[in-house]
């Protein structure tokens, strides 16, 4: 999006990214993977996210409470509730509760080296305040097709999703992401992603960007996640993600 992109369209782009971040293969990347938590395991992601524009404005989420449950080796059930914020260049912070999201994830395979597909439909309900720019103001639906394959300590996964009614004025659009992660020892994973969206607003333009980041296992069941990136175009000039993943297994 160029320098003349209206703030409302930039906010849509931020929602595109934050909404794609559920159950990252995920966090700290926007591209999702098809893997659920282990059967009976609870996974709670608590990320902070920011997107900064060249005019000094910033939008993002103070936190997103992302709760995932491994129903069986193939299935994940999730609910997410974000706390978004907007900080215009002229000041005047706006924050509150965002749109709640319900998610179902299903993978169609267990052999990572052979590779497998997955689906990840997501329904968002309009619990955020649209007038303050904290929600879409309508129910939205995401329909992702996911794929993952592993080579030794390296895994690559892709995410192609149709976002129904999720753009400005209810416009639907596509998100495409491709991510790679590599394990460096037993506690550290480093990786990156590239992603693109078709126009999320009437008369708008497509956009594309990248992120680089990693995950560090601080202790059993406690994972620090970080990433940073930007658009390949003018806006946003910076995106930052810092989060904590908490894992609770039935048999610790």
Descriptive tags:
single chain; 252 residues; mainly beta; Porin; 14-stranded antiparallel beta sheet; 6% helix; 54% strand; disordered N terminus
Written overview of the protein:
With 252 residues, the protein is mainly beta. The protein has one domain: Porin (Beta Barrel). Helix content is 6%, strand content 54%. The protein is built from 1 helix and 14 strands; from the N terminus they run H-E-E-E-E-E-E-E-E-E-E-E-E-E-E. It has one helix at residues 7-20; strands spanning 42-52, 58-72, 75-87, 94-95, 100-107, 116-119, 122-125, 140-151, 154-164, 173-184, 188-197, 207-219, 222-231, 238-248. Strands 1, 2, 3, 4, 5, 6, 7, 8, 9, 10, 11, 12, 13 and 14 form a 14-stranded antiparallel sheet that branches. A hairpin with a 2-residue loop joins strand 8 (140-151) and strand 9 (154-164). It is globular, with a radius of gyration of 17 Å. The termini are far apart.
Chart the SSEs and their pairings.
Elements: H1 7-20, E1 42-52, E2 58-72, E3 75-87, E4 94-95, E5 100-107, E6 116-119, E7 122-125, E8 140-151, E9 154-164, E10 173-184, E11 188-197, E12 207-219, E13 222-231, E14 238-248
Antiparallel strand pairs: 1-2, 1-14, 2-3, 3-4, 3-5, 5-6, 5-7, 6-8, 7-8, 8-9, 9-10, 10-11, 11-12, 12-13, 13-14
């Amino acid at each position: 999006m160029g320098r003349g992109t209206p703030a409302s369209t930039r906010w849509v782009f931020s929602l595109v990214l934050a909404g794609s971040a559920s159950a990252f293969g995920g966090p700290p990347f926007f591209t999702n993977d098809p893997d659920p938590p282990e059967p009976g395991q609870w996974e709670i992601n608590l990320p902070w996210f920011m997107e900064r524009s060249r005019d000094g404005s910033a939008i993002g989420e103070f936190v997103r409470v992302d709760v995932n449950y491994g129903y069986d080796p193939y299935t994940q059930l999730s609910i997410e509730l974000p706390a978004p914020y907007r900080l215009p260049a002229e000041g005047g912070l706006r924050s509150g509760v965002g749109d709640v999201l319900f998610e179902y994830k299903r993978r169609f395979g267990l052999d990572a080296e052979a590779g497998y597909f997955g689906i990840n439909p997501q329904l968002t309900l309009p619990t955020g305040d649209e007038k303050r720019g904290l929600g879409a103001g309508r129910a939205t639906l995401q329909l992702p097709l996911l794929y993952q394959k592993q080579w030794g300590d390296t895994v690559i996964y892709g995410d192609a999703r149709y976002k129904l009614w999720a753009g400005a004025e209810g416009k639907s659009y596509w998100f495409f992401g491709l991510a790679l992660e590599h394990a460096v020892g037993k506690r550290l994973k480093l990786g990156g992603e590239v992603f693109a969206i078709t126009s999320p607003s009437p008369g708008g333009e497509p956009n594309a960007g990248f992120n680089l980041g990693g995950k560090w296992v601080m202790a059993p069941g406690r994972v620090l996640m970080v990433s940073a990136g930007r658009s390949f175009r003018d806006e946003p000039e910076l995106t930052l993600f810092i989060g904590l993943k908490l894992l609770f297994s039935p048999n610790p």
